[in-house]
């Protein structure tokens, strides 16, 4: 039973004709000379005709070989053209970039990156969708999905790049802060009104190398940091928020920090990318823009 012809057998034959020798064809295809020779033999066996006349001095196409080359060579030439055209398109930042991001991170950190990327690449369009919690960019069709977590990410088929640490703190209205114990401790929060994210039942603090988990019973739970701050401004509880979101209110004296000597673990931001290997130019351009604009705050461990 004869061997099945493979696509690269045709390419090997065309390369031998174009390069003039089996040795040169093997070099052009970056494969052993024996593989090129075997490919031509398979073709000749399958076609039932000699394609090349070979002597120690020269090689020439037979009539059958010439006919095959005239039919097949243009196809591989066009494939090479398509490859070059594809590479050229990939070098241009264009198309639609789909991004998923939590609301606060998108508004506070990504906004500037998105605007600058659009300005720098007129052929690029960006769609930003608000998504909370873990997002699967492969299943949901995103080019990049940003997620914020307290702990490590679970293993998945995506590549996760840790790009940002968001400092968090506790804030309260001055009226509520004045009613707190003078030497407030983390454990005191168990009996105080708090404003947290959904599902939060424990806040963790650290001091002197110790981890201090404290159970809480939130009066309000929402992923929206602005809403938590509104409730804090109204004196309804102690809110855990990103410090970038609260710095203006603190500077104006409308909010005060609570227990600044007990640091909270930072909120970690990861970029989830569908492919661990080749990434579209539009994705690489956006990630490069993030690194450029946020370089001072990038987490070196994630790079």
From TrEMBL:
<dbReference type="InterPro" id="IPR036388">
    <property type="entry name" value="WH-like_DNA-bd_sf"/>
</dbReference>
<keyword id="KW-0805">Transcription regulation</keyword>
<keyword id="KW-0804">Transcription</keyword>
<dbReference type="GO" id="GO:0006351">
    <property type="term" value="P:DNA-templated transcription"/>
</dbReference>
<dbReference type="InterPro" id="IPR058163">
    <property type="entry name" value="LysR-type_TF_proteobact-type"/>
</dbReference>
<feature type="domain" description="HTH lysR-type">
    <location>
        <begin position="5"/>
        <end position="62"/>
    </location>
</feature>
<dbReference type="InterPro" id="IPR036390">
    <property type="entry name" value="WH_DNA-bd_sf"/>
</dbReference>
<dbReference type="Pfam" id="PF03466">
    <property type="entry name" value="LysR_substrate"/>
</dbReference>
<dbReference type="GO" id="GO:0003700">
    <property type="term" value="F:DNA-binding transcription factor activity"/>
</dbReference>
<dbReference type="InterPro" id="IPR000847">
    <property type="entry name" value="LysR_HTH_N"/>
</dbReference>
<dbReference type="Pfam" id="PF00126">
    <property type="entry name" value="HTH_1"/>
</dbReference>
<comment type="similarity">
    <text>Belongs to the LysR transcriptional regulatory family.</text>
</comment>
<dbReference type="GO" id="GO:0043565">
    <property type="term" value="F:sequence-specific DNA binding"/>
</dbReference>
<keyword id="KW-0238">DNA-binding</keyword>
<dbReference type="InterPro" id="IPR005119">
    <property type="entry name" value="LysR_subst-bd"/>
</dbReference>
<protein>
    <submittedName>
        <fullName>LysR family transcriptional regulator</fullName>
    </submittedName>
</protein>
């Amino acid at each position: 039973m004869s061997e099945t012809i493979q696509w690269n057998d045709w390419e090997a034959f065309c390369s031998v004709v174009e390069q003039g020798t089996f040795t040169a064809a093997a070099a052009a295809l970056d494969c052993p000379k024996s593989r090129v020779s075997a490919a031509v033999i398979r073709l000749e066996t399958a076609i039932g005709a000699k394609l090349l006349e070979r002597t120690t001095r020269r090689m020439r196409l037979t009539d059958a070989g010439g006919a095959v080359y005239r039919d097949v060579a243009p196809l591989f030439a066009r494939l090479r053209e398509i490859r070059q055209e594809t590479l050229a398109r990939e070098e241009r930042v264009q198309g639609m970039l789909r991004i998923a991001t939590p609301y606060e991170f998108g508004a506070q950190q990504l906004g500037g990156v998105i605007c600058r990327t659009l300005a720098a690449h007129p052929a690029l369009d960006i769609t930003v969708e608000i998504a909370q919690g873990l997002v699967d960019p492969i299943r949901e069709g995103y080019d990049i999905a940003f997620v914020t977590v307290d702990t490590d990410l679970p293993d998945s088929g995506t590549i996760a790049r840790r790009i940002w640490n968001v400092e968090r703190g506790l804030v309260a209205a001055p009226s509520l802060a004045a009613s707190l114990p003078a030497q407030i401790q983390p454990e005191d929060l168990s009996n105080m009104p708090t404003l947290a994210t959904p599902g939060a039942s424990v806040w963790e603090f650290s001091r002197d190398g110790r981890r201090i988990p404290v159970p809480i019973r939130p009066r309000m739970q929402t992923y929206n940091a602005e809403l938590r701050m509104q409730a804090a401004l109204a004196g309804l509880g102690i809110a855990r928020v990103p410090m970038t979101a609260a710095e203006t209110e603190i500077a104006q004296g409308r909010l005060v920090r609570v227990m600044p000597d007990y640091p909270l673990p930072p909120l970690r931001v990861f970029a989830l990318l569908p492919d661990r290997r080749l990434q579209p130019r539009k994705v690489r351009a956006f990630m490069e823009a993030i690194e450029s604009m946020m370089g001072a705050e990038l987490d070196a461990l994630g790079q």
